[in-house]
Amino acid sequence: MSDGDTDRRVVDGRFELESRLGGGGMGTVWRARDLLLHRSVAVKEVRPADPDLAEYDPDSARMLRERVLREGRALARVQHPNVVTIHHIVDGGEGTYPWIVMELVEGGSLADRLARAPMMPAEAARLGRGVLDALRAAHAAGVQHRDVKPANVLLRTDGRPVLTDFGIAAIRDSTALTATGSIIGTADYMAPERVAGSDGGPAADLWSLAMMLYVAVEGHHPLRRGTTLATLAAVLHEDVPPPKQAGPLAPVLAAVLVRDPGARPEAETVEHMLAAAEEDGHEPAATSYPLAPPLNAVPAPVPTPSETVVPRPESQGRMRRAALASVAAAAVLVGGITWVAWPDGGDKASASPTTGGRHTTPGTTPADTPLPSPTTKLATGMLTPDGIRKALRAIEDRTGRDTFGDLAVYPEYVSVKAMVPGSRTRYDSYTYRPGKGVEKGTLPGTLMGKLPVSLKNYRWDKLPALLTLAEQKLGVDKPASPYLLLQPPNEFNDDPEAFEVCLADKYATGYVLASPQGKVLKVVPADG
């Protein structure tokens, strides 16, 4: 690093350090300016946790430097949108440690995201698929990550994950302990075989990925203990307790978080399981345990049969009402939690506000809202009347089934839960994508509380006007993710058969609820 001025620090005569982004035992990450190409980059100086390593063990220090350079060069050959791009490696020669110049990912880290609130299963499954794609690309290039954890998953501004810090992970595998016996790095996400001293192979990265997803949906680490040694002992000897909030993601976690790496599924199988979890995770699994609000929470008014209680949406999605009566529903918000409870008793005097005798929820628009003239540009791809009809025809032609337990429509594809003939509960998942046709999911399923429906009489021609209404009413300024979800009737409550037209950005989701004939039943803004 050169110092032209006292307040100007330039690496390799080219990368001007501007501000510190973070750091730890393995070095410091800086936001920097590439003075040659006039772009912002991230620059990290790689250093071992023990600064005296070069003095008491120069051979190990030299090995670390060479290994980081070798793995950084290998990773630079991995061209994948979910792997951080390495632009340049600054090598000062013997007696120095490398500087790695990478793309600057500006959406923060997964650790930052989880500090606000846990994830819904579908959101976590989608993120897990992106990280798994990155790992598979790296493994194909002969590179193992060795340190998959929330802090090493960066998020682009559109929410896509980017895996980083491969070169740092290489150091940890070269020397597990410093001269004083301190462990380099954190033990929380290390696979048991790596704790035991083995390299572990790609299966160890899968363990770390699954543990990260467990933490993402549960909000806590199941094996973290009061000290690092106690955590290591738990990873080595204790079983991972079953998750309570993972819903359709639970089978993936149960399959991967086993101590025997040979018993874990291959990456391709994990990808299929995550895809199925993402498809099935649009609503949380019901729980038989009555959830209680936090001690300091103010309970919501007790709804009467004619009232509607609408949970507020989570930062990357929204939670539907729980399927079982007398079960509390929690909606996770950025910066806090809002609890909506249905207790067995309560103060009937606390009623919801009404408008003209019609009960409403603050922040929502009353039913019977007239549809505007369709002017939207969001009706694209499969998210059009013709696109939906085409997908449903293709699925019926392929399967012979026309009764469904769920439907999700995105501009890129349509997925359904097609009921097994003769059954009201068992279904198979199918996805239709233009150019690929109908593909069957890997795992069958069973409906919980929902009743299957026919979609033949749905007025899909109302979709453009509903999307226009959503743009006007939901308060999502720059929607990055328009989609449609089926709301089948529920055998445990009075939810009507309907569908939701949803708009989302990176912060929140709002939706318009419409009857099968396209009549507006409810409008719930993103901040409602």
Automatic annotation (TrEMBL):
Domain of life: Bacteria
Record Pfam families: Pkinase
Chain ranges of the Protein kinase domain: 15-275
Parts of the chain that traverse the membrane: none
GO molecular function: kinase activity
SUPFAM superfamilies from the UniProt entry: Protein kinase-like (PK-like)
Binding site for ATP: K44
Protein name per its UniProtKB record: non-specific serine/threonine protein kinase
Ranges of compositional bias, category Low complexity: 353-366
Keyword RNA-binding carried by entry: no
Disordered: annotated span: 348-373
Keyword Kinase annotated: yes
Keywords, comma-separated and alphabetical: ATP-binding, Kinase, Nucleotide-binding, Serine/threonine-protein kinase, Transferase
EC number: 2.7.11.1
